[in-house]
Specification:
The chain has about 290 residues and is of the alpha/beta class. The protein folds into 2 domains: about 35 residues, no CATH class; about 230 residues, Zn-dependent exopeptidases (Aminopeptidase, 3-Layer(aba) Sandwich). It contains 7 helices and 12 strands. It has a 6-stranded mixed beta sheet, sandwiched between helices. Strand 4 and strand 5 form a beta hairpin. Helix 4 packs across helix 5. It is globular and about 50 Å long. About 15% of the residues have low confidence.
């Protein structure tokens, strides 16, 4: 009896699978048509379960991964009905649009909806996509302190960088390449040194990019007096992707929150950041030519 029941449920599936494998069609006389079951598969070499990359199909073009902080069950800072996760998603989408409009740069968002990602996923997405630059966007809170305003830019601190390099070397001693250098099959000691050298180069590039953002934003963006900072931030710990965390401003400042949420404010941010990104890649291209 069990065998008969099992055949009743599995026989149709087996028939459809057989038709698909042998490229046959299934006649449906009542409709007067034949139907073929087709299964869409990703192209060979395309990353699976990763965000879509928009922009030129040429994979030699630089790739920027934009990370809108928080999301889903994690709203980030909240003040007066304004949620950080909403502010930064708007800024991320504006930056993506401006970069694509400027041409020649590929772009991916770690999230383009109100979904939750753990911190470790965000830089790992950039690594797996082969990003050339990672920009994580957040907004700050000053609690009950009034009048605090302005954007700030974080890069990874030296101490945190060394710790991250050591952990990465221990975890991925057999990785193929890191920052263009083959580390596959190297001893643990050599692999650790290569990772540290890669991390040092990434830090230098990250600092260079943060300076460009400040320079290009002078007169258009309002910066905090302590504009450039370093910290032990998990989202910046990818050892082979230059990265910054951009704190766009303080949502606890009503005027600044309104500006960050406005179309004009988002476009100003996007234009400024796009200029900095294009200059950064132009300099990098100049170094390699």
């Amino acid at each position: 009896m069990r065998t008969q029941i099992w055949l009743i449920f599995t026989a149709p599936l087996a028939l459809v699978a057989g038709l698909f494998i042998f490229g046959l069609t299934l006649p449906v006389p009542y409709l007067g048509r034949d139907y073929v079951l087709r299964l869409a598969l990703p192209d060979a070499g395309d990353p699976v379960d990763l965000p879509k990359i928009s922009g030129p199909p040429d994979r030699s073009r630089p790739l920027v991964v934009i990370d809108a902080g928080h999301g889903g069950k994690d709203p980030g800072a909240v003040h007066g009905g304004v949620r950080e996760k909403d502010i930064v998603l708007g800024l991320a989408k504006a930056l993506k649009s401006e970069l694509l409009a400027s041409g020649g740069i590929r772009v991916a968002l770690t999230r383009d909806t109100d979904n939750f990602l753990v911190l470790q996923e965000r830089p790992e997405i950039a690594r797996r996509l082969g990003a050339d630059l990672f920009v994580s966007i957040h907004a700050d809170s000053a609690g009950e302190v009034r009048g605090v305003r302005g954007a700030s830019i974080y890069t990874l601190s030296n101490e945190a960088s060394s710790e991250a390099a050591a952990r990465f070397a221990e975890r991925e001693n057999n990785t193929d390449r890191l920052n263009g250098v083959s580390v596959q099959g190297q001893s643990e000691a050599i692999s650790s040194i290569l990772v540290q050298l890669s991390q040092r180069r990434v830090q230098e590039n990250s600092s260079q990019f943060s300076r460009l953002v400040v320079r290009e934003g002078d007169g258009t963006l309002r910066f905090h007096p302590q504009t450039r900072r370093s910290a032990e931030l998990a989202v910046l710990r990818a050892p082979d992707v230059p990265a910054i965390l951009y704190e766009a401003g303080y949502i606890t400042n009503p005027e600044e929150a309104r500006a960050l949420a406005s179309e004009e404010g988002q476009e100003t941010f996007a234009r400024t950041m796009t200029r900095a990104i294009r200059i950064y890649f132009a300099r990098e291209r100049g170094r390699t030519e």
